[in-house]
Predict the 3D structure of the following.
Amino acid sequence: MNAPIGSAFALATLAALAAGCSAKDQANESLASGKAVPTFRSLDADVDGSLTPTEAAKFMELAAVFPQADKDRDGLLSSAEYEDAVEDLIKG
Ligand SMILES: [Ca+2]
Ligand SMILES: [Ca+2]
């Protein structure tokens, strides 16, 4: 009997692959862990100039600090909020 865990895993794998595909688009920044930082544009899937929690979820480290990064608490990250958050992530 197949548990639905398989499809959840497949989705997670797809998400990881999608994140990897935007690697071409990324700036020359990397985290202390050596992981490259995706550009704001590569995360902004609908190109509306802000990141929803769903869009930010592609960048795990950013998703983890989303509430703090969203300084004006509108539930979205502007590019300025993103830059600040990335700077904090890089500095550690
Ligand atoms: Ca967006
Ligand atoms: Ca915000």
In short: The chain has six helices and two strands. The helical segments are 5-21, 40-43, 53-56, 60-64, 66-69, 79-91. Residues 21-26 have pLDDT under 50 and may be disordered. The pocket of calcium ion (ligand 1) is lined by residues 44, 46, 48, 50-52, 55 (CB under 6 Å).
